[in-house]
Design brief:
Layout (H helix, E strand, L loop, with lengths): L7 H7 L3 H17 L5 E5 L2 H9 L10 E5 L10 H12 L3 E5 L12 H6 L4 E4 L2 H9 L5 E7 L1 H13 L5 E8 L1 H10 L5 E7 H7 L5 H7 L3 E4 L3 H16 L5 E3 L11 H10 E8 L3 E10 L8 H4 L21 H5 L31 H8 L10
Parallel strand pairs: 1-2, 1-7, 3-4, 3-5, 5-6, 7-8, 8-9
Antiparallel strand pairs: 6-11, 10-11
Helix pairs in contact: 2-11, 3-15, 7-12
């Protein structure tokens, strides 16, 4: 018999076992019923969790009365419009802009990087931070890495910075740090979130202990979960148990990848290069310590210091009128679902996105458009 520890395909199937999934679905239904009230609202703070929930049809198996809300877990979606504008301004100055794929189509205040590219700007889609270094080494022109994403991709950016950049390469950091955004959600007066499902990959870097101060302040449980179907179901069972027992604490349900302390080497690199600072997240709010900016000792490679970024130069492009009706902010704050938006699937589609949530593969609207959101398969569990 092959070992599941050595065969990746069998290892993956181990976390998609139908019998174990059914048992966890039944347990989730029992735990929710034991609360004796509905609805019970919990939030996952990761677009990858929503992808998995939709891809494997898990939402149709959740018990009625358990409301699993999507949070601000899409790094592309929460990159604020003025940050996109900064990239557009630099691109229109003739600078090469390199960024991750979904970011290209995300609307800024008046235009996207894709719009700028259509006007002749040099926009490059990259799949890793290391590719940006290769791009800069291939040209004598100025190259700017429009660096987006949470702490997971920020670590990769930090690694190339510490490795030494070519003289024609600089960083426009739009990186975000997720724990402060959870504080914002917990402090929204109208929030109904009683517990959080934290992203396993981010916790691989930061460790599960990063959530302990949050739990102490807000008295809501946090469960760290992976991204296979059984990971998510087991995480939700534990989360509802903690709510039922009124025991707010951090529980790591992804121990095969996450430790309490996290990856100390990665954390050292992250905080050596970046400092947390306050800033707006698109559609949500000003998030104290939610943005990651280059430390002063790296000013020479900071694109905001190397170039003049005059956002007023974009004023000759009027914002799209439809953007005024977009409710991406409410969706990312967990206050609305994609189908609550009157533009969803009509004026706003993956082919012609109005809001950022319809652009990214981790965006709630695009995921619901692709997989059907909350299918009703005719059962309670």
């Amino acid at each position: 018999m092959p070992s599941t520890d050595r065969d990746p395909a069998l290892f993956e199937l181990k976390f998609r076992d139908p019998a174990r999934a059914r048992a966890l679905v039944e347990a989730l239904g029992r735990r929710t019923a034991e609360l004796g009230r509905t609805p019970v609202s919990v939030m996952h703070v990761c677009g990858s969790h929503e992808q998995a929930i939709a891809k494997f049809g898990l939402r149709s198996t959740f018990p009625r009365g358990l409301n699993v809300i999507m949070g601000p877990g899409c790094p592309v979606c929460i990159t604020d419009a003025p940050e996109v504008d900064e990239g557009v301004v630099l691109a229109r100055q003739g600078v090469h802009i390199a960024t991750y794929g979904d970011m290209v189509r995300v609307p800024g205040t008046s235009m996207s990087l894709a719009d700028a590219q259509a006007d002749g700007a040099k926009i490059h889609v990259i799949y890793s931070a290391a590719q940006v270094v290769e791009l800069a080494q291939s040209t004598s022109d100025q190259v700017v890495f429009f660096a987006t994403g949470f702490e997971t991709t920020a670590v990769a950016t930090a690694a190339i910075v510490l490795g030494g950049l070519p003289s024609n390469l600089s960083i426009l950091s739009a990186h975000k740090y997720i724990p402060p955004a959870m504080e914002i959600v917990a402090e929204v007066p109208e929030t109904k979130v009683e517990g959080f499902l934290a992203a396993g990959h981010a916790a691989t870097i930061t460790g599960s202990a990063v959530f302990e101060p949050f739990v102490a302040r807000h008295h809501v449980p946090v469960v760290v979960a992976g991204f296979e179907p059984l990971d998510i179901l087991a995480g939700l069972v534990k989360l509802v148990e903690l709510i039922r027992d009124r025991t707010p604490q951090v529980v790591n349900m992804f121990p095969r990848c996450v430790t309490r302390a996290g990856n100390l080497r990665a954390q050292e690199q992250l905080w050596k290069v970046f400092r947390p600072t306050g800033g707006r997240w698109r559609g949500i709010a000003h998030v104290p310590n939610g943005n990651l900016r280059l430390r002063d000792e790296f000013r020479s490679i900071d694109a905001r210091r190397r170039f003049t970024i005059d956002l007023a130069s974009l004023w000759d492009h009027a914002p799209a009128a439809l953007a005024q009706s977009c409710i991406c902010g409410d969706i990312m704050a967990g206050l609305s679902s994609p189908t609550d938006c009157k533009l969803f699937g009509q004026e706003c589609t993956p082919e012609k996105p109005v809001g950022a949530c319809m652009v990214s593969s981790e965006g709630a609207c695009k995921i619901w458009h692709e997989y059907g959101g909350h299918p009703d398969l005719g059962g309670d569990a």
